[in-house]
Amino acid sequence: MAYTRKDVSTLTKAERRRFVGALLEIKRRGEYDEFVRIHIEYYVSDGEDGLRTAHMAPSFLPWHRRFLLDLERALRRVDSSVTVPYWDWTKNRSATAAPWTADLLGGTGRPSDQRVTTGPFAHAEGNWTLTENVTDTEFLTRDLGRRRDPIQLPTRSDLEWALKDPVYDTAPWDSTAGKGFRNKLEGWGSGRGSASWRNHNRVHRWVGGAMLGGASVNDPVFWLVHAFVDLQWSRWQRRHGRPRYLPAEPPGRGSAQHGRIVARHERLPPWDTTPDELEDHSRIYRYA
Amino acid sequence: MAVSAPNAPTETPVPAAPEPALPTRRGVIRRLLLPAALATAAVPAASAVSRATRPDTAAPHLADGPQGTVFEETYRGRRIRGVRPAAGAGAWHVTVDDRPLHLMRRADGTWLTMVDHYRSYATPLDAARAAVDELGPGRHLRETGPHTGGGHGVHA
Hints:
Chain B: InterPro entries: GriE/MELC1_sf (IPR023199), MelC1 (IPR010928), TAT_signal (IPR006311). With 288 residues, chain A is mostly helical. Chain A is 31% helix and 2% strand.
């Protein structure tokens, strides 16, 4: 029977405690750091050689869907009542609202070094030491809203701009695709300054610290962000009559994207599954 | 934001600023055209110091310069260096305080780093400065760089 992923701002005290407890337990077991490592390893940029699966590619959405499912399975092995909540940043827009409370993820970092000092993931609590990282800091870092040059979270209309595009993705199937739901939601823009981040990318920037880098998984808000991104894929499917993942077929040998993206029925590394198999989650979970 | 603003030219070298050095953009750019044989190695600081300094305003064009182009500056108290190796190698070698900063290229020709992974910048130097902005005075890159899996080459 399908389980339910909830809006993090609606969780009861007990649900918050159990979610946090399961995260700390898989961290203690060493399972969590494997997720951090995988995310670093699979971040291949589109100006480089090689197959892109996680970012700057059509499979951004199914890759992160499967990544979330793996994390959720690990959490549910610890506590079968736990599911990954989502953070609706179009509604909960304050740096002190959910999920930034002391009984969930804790708040922003201190000014000197961005160190998170509140909540269960503060380094001083002794349960959340970063081992897979870009910097040599062992503590979780955040800079909610970016103090030195404040930016705003993406809005409901930013999301609507992505949701109203009826096509899943378009050539050239990378970060420069000007049309298509996938890149509008992933959020690669052109140009300079704050207009260059949209939706998903902009949320990573707003949170800052660990979430800005390749080791963004070190901040557990990563999962809440990607649950909300995942929910948008479902909403988009419902709105447009369940359009399919694109491309349906691999780009041909003459294409610059040949061998560099995953088509609908191709294997999606590092898993033995395809985007086609990840398009419908209704038998596994649903969103409240 | 700081990295996209034009930088004021400086006439004299600025010594490494004491921390915290915020906010200064009086970095000194030293532009070198290296013989190809030297280009794959990090440039000794002594050779950089002996060259003439140039205004910062030259910096944004360095990424499109010839092979072997080097940038080196002190930015917000951090020492940023970049070397573009000889033909064929392709990858920039960029360091902050002598620690490697992994650089990736986007399909539109812009650059992003492991520190600031969700937007890109016009040049490797811009991307390196943005990484320094994000590190602030209190955080440092790992000495060996992050685990980067398959070792995909960055092609300039």
